[in-house]
Write a structure and sequence with these properties.
Radius of gyration: 19 Å
Strand content: under 5%
């Protein structure tokens, strides 16, 4: 349990930092909270019903694992294609050298 807790702590720490860096500071709280809670409600709240339906319709107790694998694959594709690196923006904001002019909002 301790090892599992450590792995979850590492994942959650990185996830929180990554989510915070995706949005400007002035809208960060709402921009993170609203989509995160909607998705957790939609997928997390329906998992017991979907798992029960999958087991009942397929007869296999392993059927819900395929649901989890499918959602993990979708998450991997989104993470690879849609999440952008924010390090150059942080460097510019901190006064680092930048070949492009920095625009102020």
């Amino acid at each position: 349990m301790l090892l599992l807790g450590l792995l979850i702590a590492v994942f959650d720490g990185a996830l929180s930092a990554m989510m915070a860096e995706q949005f400007p500071a002035r809208i960060r709280s709402g921009a993170m909270a609203i989509p995160y809670n909607l998705v957790v409600s939609a997928f997390g709240g329906t998992v017991p019903y979907v798992a029960t339906w999958m087991v009942a319709s397929t007869g296999s107790k392993l059927a819900p694992s395929f649901y989890v694998m499918f959602l993990a694959a979708v998450t991997l594709v989104v993470a690879i294609t849609a999440i952008r690196e924010t390090a150059p923006r942080r460097t510019r904001a901190a006064g680092g050298r930048d070949p492009e002019p920095t625009r102020q909002p």
